[in-house]
Amino acid sequence: MNAPHDSDHDKLRNAHPMARLRNYFFTGVIVVAPVTITGYLIWTFVSWVDRIVKPLIPPVYNPDNYLPFAVPGFGVVAAVLIITMAGFLAANLVGRSVVSFSERLLDRMPLVRTLYRGLKQIFETVLNERANNFQAVGLIQYPRPGIWAVVFQSTQTRGEVAYKLSENEGQEELVSVFLPTTPNPTSGFLLFVPKADLITLDMSVEDGAKLVISAGLVVPDHQEKLAALAAEAKAKRKPADPGEEPPREAAE
User: Fold this and answer.
1) DSSP SS3 for 154
2) Nearest to 65 by CA among 47, 43, 74
3) Which of 82, 84, 124 lies closest to 103 in space, CA to CA?
């Protein structure tokens, strides 16, 4: 949040008392609401995990049986230890054999295997540290020329999609991008676009997510050139008038 200028303070001092109270209220909301909501979500998650995990802990190891109050977060700590131990066991030969046997068993169940494969692929993609996930933030013209949308670039298009498009449409280099929806960026559209039609931005993926979630209200300071980039790309795609003189910058 940018610091207010001296002129803003002067305007606030000279404003009507009710206007000043209103400004103070909205300033308080901006300060208090994010902290409160974040704390509430964390507390809700911790309480949910505690309700699930604590009944599974042997009573002799549960501190709630020795203290006059419940220990918040103990279920989360226990869950982390259990998951870590499961990962350690799955990494050795015996664990891999058990996991392999379990997967073969699940593959024989028609409905369960589809659900299991989908969930496993999602978690492997999200949690795999070697995966690049989203590489950059970009702009494409969507849903029609002249209208720009923020997208997240994932990777270069490969496999059958790239082969079929290059065979039928003559597209040589395509990129896979995710077009998020506002204000929920977890849903959206997977698009395959020519690399030449994608404008890569300097902003980080996190800043791009903030831009989408806030519906354009939260824009990083260093992204003021976003509109300039879009205008520049639009000017490049617009056919020049034969009788029109080139821009002064281009002539220089």
Assistant:
1) strand
2) 74
3) 124
pTM for the model stands at: 0.52
Long-range contacts of 92-97 (CB under 8 A, 24+ apart): none
Q: With contact defined as beta carbons under 8 Å apart, do 74 and 51 qualify?
A: no
Q: Are 174 and 193 in contact (CB under 8 A)?
A: yes
Token code pair at residue 146: 């002249």
CB 172 within 8 A of CB 158: no
Q: What amino acid is encoded at 101 in this protein?
A: F
- Token reading at 198: 């994608």
For residue 122 the two structure tokens come to 């999602």
Q: What is the dihedral of CA 194, 199, 204, 207, to 10 degrees?
A: -110
Give 3-state DSSP helix, strand, coil % of the chain, rounded to 5: 60, 10, 30
Burial class (CB in 10 A: 0-12, 13-18, 19+), 246: exposed
pLDDT tens profile 136-180? 899 999 988 889 999 998 888 888 888 887 776 666 788 899 999
Helix (H, G, I), strand (E, B) or coil at 215: coil
Whole-number Å distance between alpha carbons of 230 and 197: 11
